[in-house]
Design brief:
The protein has one domain: Glycosyl hydrolase domain, family 43 (Tachylectin-2, Chain A), CATH 2.115.10. It is 7% helix and 43% strand. It has two helices and 21 strands. A hairpin with a 6-residue loop joins strand 11 and strand 12. The longest helix has 18 residues.
């Protein structure tokens, strides 16, 4: 997620397009901030939208709409962001101890008046009699003029000791990682925090300002003996003016330090390009990455030129070069 006013406006337009036009082609779904998980033979995609949008697919190509996660906004949301409209940002889905954990973002415009919540379910099949999302409340909250970070864009990762960590953040003083309790619903004590990525911020800006260090949406992917940190740089959600791009760094330990191909630390502005806009798309970003059936995939949204910047889902197979850096097929 980025610069909240612009983001909310663009998301609202995107959802309106979806509701008016429907899905003429299953792969032409309107998507921001996709995450994916597989249950049995079905892939489930969660993304930004009213109540959290959900789609399902058998082949990662043809997607069908599923019921939204929250019919009504979380009961605590207005206490974080006044008059919240149930337009929930940037979910993250994981399966642990026979339960699905869905993290999500509640925020206010152009402020770090934000919180990350989590909901749980024992199945993703909406036709299953046991299907029921249960909100577990706030995991972490940020407040203007208190915190120089923003509690949005969550991503859960387990280290080599099966310790849970939550990566998150957007703008301000960079992307953070904090240790969670085993219940996955609260911060562990004593608290352990790390800055895993950062870009230069103009010093003179007030603390309440998002700033000009444009980065967000960390996603940690374990592979090849490394933790790869994907993140998005620059600006999303501006249609033809979107400059979003995905960069990457890696570390032998989950908390970093992460470095790019040139050895530059990500918490000092480092990051090696993975994907950006091209002849078909204005900008591309907010990715996730997974291994399904022995193949590695990257999922992200990109602003389609032929439809004047409509955000589309992109799915690509991810391979690895001789130095074990990701390349897209």
């Amino acid at each position: 997620m980025t610069y909240m006013v612009y983001k909310n406006i663009k998301y609202a337009i995107s959802i309106l397009i979806f509701l008016i036009g429907g899905i003429s082609f299953a792969q032409e779904i309107v998507v921001h901030d996709p995450v994916v998980i597989k249950q049995k033979d079905t892939y489930y995609l969660f993304c930004t939208g009213k109540g959290i949008s959900v789609f399902s697919s058998k082949d990662l190509k043809n997607w069908n709409p599923e019921p939204q996660v929250f019919a009504e906004k979380p009961v605590w949301a207005d206490g974080v962001a006044a008059d919240f409209k149930n337009h929930i940002w940037a979910p993250d889905i994981s399966f642990h101890n026979n339960k699905y954990y869905l993290y999500y973002s509640v925020s206010a415009f152009a402020k770090n008046t934000s919180a990350i919540g989590v909901a749980t379910n024992i199945t993703l099949d909406s036709k299953d009699k046991n299907y029921n999302w249960v909100d577990q409340g706030i995991v972490i909250q940020s407040q203007p003029n208190r915190d120089m970070w923003n509690a949005i864009d969550p991503n859960l990762i387990f280290d080599e000791n099966n310790t849970p960590w939550l990566a998150f953040g957007s703008f301000w003083e960079g992307l953070k990682m904090v240790k969670l309790n085993p219940d996955l619903k609260s911060i562990a004590h004593p608290q352990e925090w790390h800055t895993i990525s950062k870009r230069k911020r103009t010093f003179e800006l007030p603390d309440s300002d998002p700033g000009d260090g444009a980065l967000e949406a960390p996603f940690i992917f374990k592979k090849n003996g490394y933790y790869y940190q994907f993140l998005s740089w620059d600006l999303c959600c501006r249609g033809e003016k979107s400059t979003y791009k995905v960069v990457v760094g890696r570390s032998k330990t989950v908390t970093g330090p992460y470095v790019d191909k040139d050895g530059k630390p990500l918490d000092q502005g480092g990051g090696s390009l993975v994907v950006q806009g091209d002849e078909n798309y204005f900008g591309a970003g907010h990715n996730s990455a997974y291994t399904f059936d022995g193949k590695d995939y990257i999922f992200y949204h990109a602003y389609e030129k032929k439809s004047n910047g409509t955000p589309r889902l992109i799915v690509k197979e991810m391979q690895w070069d001789a130095d074990l850096w990701p390349i897209l097929k």
